């Protein structure tokens, strides 16, 4: 499978995950998909809370789901898609790329550092996606090695 097929497949998984988001306050549905070295994909979606600061982002939800499946190494790719749901229930991706927030960059970095990887991050939008390495999105990241 080509790199373009890999990224398209992962972005489609993130887009599908966004449909299950609980976003009654912002109306902004986000899905994230994590691909691991063994080819497995784990997804998550945002879950808002009336106390806005307690909301959970899609990327963090996906990392938690991966942890529950025993996946703490081998993270190779991350895809994020976000936007409102249309009347047909389909995600209407934003014009601008959806990148992980700062907190999610840190959470993804923790998972990546556990497996000594620097995954590609595909930030989806209506016209396609941007591709970055996680280390570019969070340079000089704090991680497990900084503690000892």
List the keywords.
alpha+beta; 4 helices; single chain; 23% strand; 148 residues; Cytidine Deaminase, domain 2; 5-stranded mixed β-sheet
Structure description:
The protein is of the alpha+beta class. It has one domain: 3-Layer(aba) Sandwich (Cytidine Deaminase, domain 2). The chain is 30% helix and 23% strand. The chain is built from four helices and five strands; from the N terminus they run αββαβαββα. It has helices at residues 3-18, 58-68, 102-114, 134-137, and strands at residues 29-36, 41-45, 75-83, 120-125, 128-133. Strands 2-1-3-4-5 form a five-stranded mixed β-sheet. Helix 3 (102-114) links the parallel strand 3 (75-83) and strand 4 (120-125). The longest helix has 16 residues, at 3-18. The termini are far apart. The mean pLDDT is 95.
- Total number of helices: 4
Return the string of H and E elements: HEEHEHEEH
> Could you please say which CATH topology applies here?
Cytidine Deaminase, domain 2
CATH class: Alpha Beta
Radius of gyration: 15 Å
CATH superfamily: Cytidine Deaminase, domain 2
Low-pLDDT segments = none
Fraction in helix = 25-40%
Question: Cα distance, first to last residue?
Answer: 40 Å
Question: What is the overall shape?
Answer: globular
| Strand residue percentage | 15-25%
Largest beta sheet: strand ordering: 2-1-3-4-5
What composes the largest sheet? 5 strands, mixed
Strand tally is 5
Give the helix/strand class: alpha+beta
How many structural domains can be distinguished in the coordinates?
1
**Overall mean pLDDT:** 95
Which assembly state applies to the chains in this document? single chain
CATH architecture: 3-Layer(aba) Sandwich
């Amino acid at each position: 499978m080509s790199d373009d097929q890999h990224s398209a497949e992962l972005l489609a998984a993130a887009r599908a995950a966004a449909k299950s988001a609980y976003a009654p306050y912002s109306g902004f549905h986000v899905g994230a998909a994590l691909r691991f070295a063994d080819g497995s994909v784990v997804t998550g979606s945002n879950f808002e809370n009336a106390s806005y600061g307690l909301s959970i982002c899609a990327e963090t939800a996906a990392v938690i789901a991966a942890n529950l499946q025993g996946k703490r190494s081998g993270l190779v790719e991350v895809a994020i898609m976000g936007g409102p749901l249309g009347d047909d229930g389909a995600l209407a991706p934003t014009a601008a790329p959806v990148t992980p927030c700062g907190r999610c960059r840190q959470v993804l970095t923790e998972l990546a550092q556990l497996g000594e990887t620097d995954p590609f991050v595909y930030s989806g939008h209506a016209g396609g996606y941007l591709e970055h390495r996680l280390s570019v999105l969070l340079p000089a990241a704090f991680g497990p090695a900084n503690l000892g």
